[in-house]
Amino acid sequence: MKAEIIFFSATGTTKNIVWAISRGLNCETQFTDITLPENRNKYRPIHSDIIIIATPIYGERIPRFVFEFIEQIEGEGRPLAVVSVYGNMGFGISLEQFETFALNKHFCLIAAGTFIGEHTFAKKNAPVALGRPNEADLAEASAFGRKIRRKLEDGSFDPIIIPKSKLPMFITNFPDRGTRFLIKQPAVDLSACSKCGVCAKKCPVGAIDSKTLLIDEQKCIRCYACVRSCPNFARLAKFRLGFFEPVFGYMGARKRDNRTFL
Ligand SMILES: Cc1cc2nc3c(=O)[nH]c(=O)nc-3n(C[C@H](O)[C@H](O)[C@H](O)COP(=O)(O)O)c2cc1C
């Protein structure tokens, strides 16, 4: 049995969950990391018995460029499992988007999971899902992988039931990259920056000029890849208004559980 796991992970939590799922799946696996633009450009589909697609959720949905990337893949009746990783706020309409994608691209959607990852914007004063996925989360992700394998071995591909989102229209219609209205683009602390260019290399959308290291505000998706990858901690991102931080902390305080649908 051969699996292909396609994933986007700007700050590494989705990647951790993907590894745990693959441990449970326990078969030959090709990992296709589509985080960087060059990897997306050189992608060639391979033959596999199952495809697993995993992405963090941005603004209650699949990030647009991830969706545009996966739309080029043809299912040809193959089994598909999907994973939404989210920061304890909500996975929104992402599973419904995956369901429609599976239908349109002729995949057989056999499994879906929603897993909690530390929220990208978590801070000491707003510790939303801090430290997740923890050991228990990763054990659940591995168990999800085992269940997918069992389902494939049984050949029981009954359609799964995806819960309908109850989000109001003003949230589901929130503009793509709407997080730009909440978070300022990452600034640079010039006294700490060594101009090594790691931030430009790690930007998933090519928003940082490799020579000037300036960020294109329109392209920046506020994913924090540059903030987390800077070896000198010179990239800093902030909420646009001070009171956003306590509100964010309050909204993300209730601990949510991982969920699987098989
Ligand atoms: C731009 C942006 C928007 C986000 N929107 C949501 C959201 O709507 N709901 C939520 O629970 N988490 C949201 N998150 C948090 C991420 O889904 C979460 O932190 C995830 O674990 C990040 O995955 P990664 O480390 O693989 O990049 C958002 C993060 C970013 C950067």
* CATH topology descriptor of the largest domain: Rossmann fold
Judging by the overall fold, what is the CATH architecture of the largest domain? 3-Layer(aba) Sandwich
Ligands in the structure?
flavin mononucleotide
Helix content: 25-40%
Considering the chains and any ligands shown, give keywords for the structure.
Rossmann fold; globular; 16% strand; Alpha-Beta Plaits; 262 residues; binds flavin mononucleotide; 8 strands; two-stranded antiparallel sheet; alpha/beta; 30% helix
Short description:
This protein is 30% helix and 16% strand. It has 262 residues and is an alpha/beta fold.
Structural features, described:
The protein is of the alpha/beta class. The chain has 2 domains: 2-166, Rossmann fold (3-Layer(aba) Sandwich); 184-238, Alpha-Beta Plaits (2-Layer Sandwich). The chain contains 9 helices and 8 strands. It has helices at residues 13-25, 37-41, 64-70, 94-104, 135-154, 169-172, 198-202, 225-229, 244-251; strands at residues 2-7, 28-33, 50-56, 79-86, 108-116, 187-188, 235-236, 259-261. A 6-stranded mixed beta sheet has the order 2-1-3-4-5-8, sandwiched between helices. The longest helix is centred in the middle third of the chain and has 20 residues, at 135-154. The chain binds flavin mononucleotide. Residues 9-14, 56-60, 85-90, 92, 117-120, 179, 221-224 line the site of flavin mononucleotide.
List the helices and strands and how they pair.
Blueprint (H helix, E strand, L loop, with lengths): L1 E6 L5 H13 L2 E6 L3 H5 L8 E7 L7 H7 L8 E8 L7 H11 L3 E9 L18 H20 L14 H4 L14 E2 L9 H5 L22 H5 L5 E2 L7 H8 L7 E3 L1
Parallel strand pairs: 1-2, 1-3, 3-4, 4-5
Antiparallel strand pairs: 5-8, 6-7
Helix pairs in contact: 1-5
The protein binds flavin mononucleotide.
